[in-house]
Give the backbone structure.
Amino acid sequence: MKMTQNRIPGASPFRGSFLAALAVFVLAAAMPALAQDLAQDATRMEELEARTAAIMEELAALRAELELAKKETASVEIETLRTEVAQIAEIAQRAETSTLARDNPISVTHLAGYAAAGYSTTKDGTGSFDVANFNPIFHFQYADRILWESELEIDVGDNGETEVGLEYSTIDIFLNDNFAFVAGKFISPIGQFRQNIHPSWINKAPSAPPGFGHDAAAPAAEVGFQLRGGALVSETSKITYSAYVGNGPVLAVEDGELHGIESGGFTGDADDEKVVGGRFSLLPIPKLEFGLSAAFGDVAIVENDGMEVEDDAARSYDVFGADAAYQWNNFDLRAEYVHQKIGNQALSILPEGGTWKTWYAQGAYKFAQAKWEGVLRYTDYHSPHPEQSQEQVLVGLNYLLTANAVIKLAYEYNDGLNGELTNKDRIMFQIAYGY
Amino acid sequence: MKKLTLKTIFALTLTVLLGFGEFLLERQGQAAPVATQSDEPTQFARGAKAWANTCARCHNMRDPKELVDDQWRATIAHMRIRANLTGGEARDILAFLQGVN
């Protein structure tokens, strides 16, 4: 047999076959191992996929839990916030209630009043600082039902002694919108000057009109019961009313004549007859007022030249008053008449009675932005005793430091009995403050 | 025992009937209430008007800022007596003063 020409030089035909057989053998030997590896890889892949899926499920579960936890946490926080807000609101409510209670408690105590200091000199006499007084007013109010109010009158006398008086002290019960019941010592409701105008920071003059002081023509105070109030008649008009019953004044005799009518208010009633009186006023428009006052009863002499008198026969006592007031722009106009009449009593230690009467008219005008005020007042006072009677013209100029603090300068032209103080002109300076 | 005259009895009876009769009626809710706060929106305006018309009848107008709320309460109660204010006027004026002080 012949060898082919493409045979590799130097290689025998047997060698090639051997190599091929070896390769086949190696391949045959390696095949199971390769197949095993492939199977293992597939298993691992499946495991990995399963684990990945499990992880994904776990992750989803964790996310869900996380979301739930977040929601729960938010709900708790919101609830906590709500609770805190509610607590704060409750605290704020308590604070507001407390503030309201503090600002508007059931009971209220209040101190008010007024004070004055002044100097006066007569035209031909010696001047002196003759006014140094203060009038504290105490208020104690229970709800809107009861008010206790009391005013003291404290001043220094010309002898240097301090004098203290009880101007009024009443328990006021507000019965309804139109009536108040007043019990105790009260300022006489006769007329306007005594009950409303006399405080020094209100009175536009440094002095009271002659006859409106103590023991003169106008009753000062009363001890008893009073019913007073007001009612609207229309949108612009109104009526006011005051009615009282009290012990009434007493009389004192000096040098064989009635010195005056002591009407400062007494808890005793020497004549055992009560005095009944009151005032009625109409305001057809808000700043225009007309008033009528009257009182009647009995009085008796209780003192004769400093000696006490008992069981003197009672005599009649009558009071009549009329007043008017009008405010227009910067003008304040007012006038008032009042008299007290004591009847004769034949059985008394002093049979003769008498009448004390007075009237005044006053005009005031504010100017210079209401800081200054001019005052003109005329008074005519008649007493049974000529030394008490007096005709007076007062001209004044006031400077208002505030609405309730005023400096007053006034000149009084006085016409009385020759030689008496009532006949001497007077210059007065006064500072008054209401608080 | 000292005798009481007819007019004294009349006066005392009148006082009791008018005074305590009204008091009892009010307690039974048949009369107008006494001063209490009101939320009426017009009360402030009414109070300002009543304040301007009433207070200046006797004295200079005082600054509402002079006093705090409870002081105005006692002051208005005092002025209700002194100036014969109605309960309504007193409430209105108080609402105004407490509103602007």
Observations:
- The radius of gyration of chain B is 18 Å.
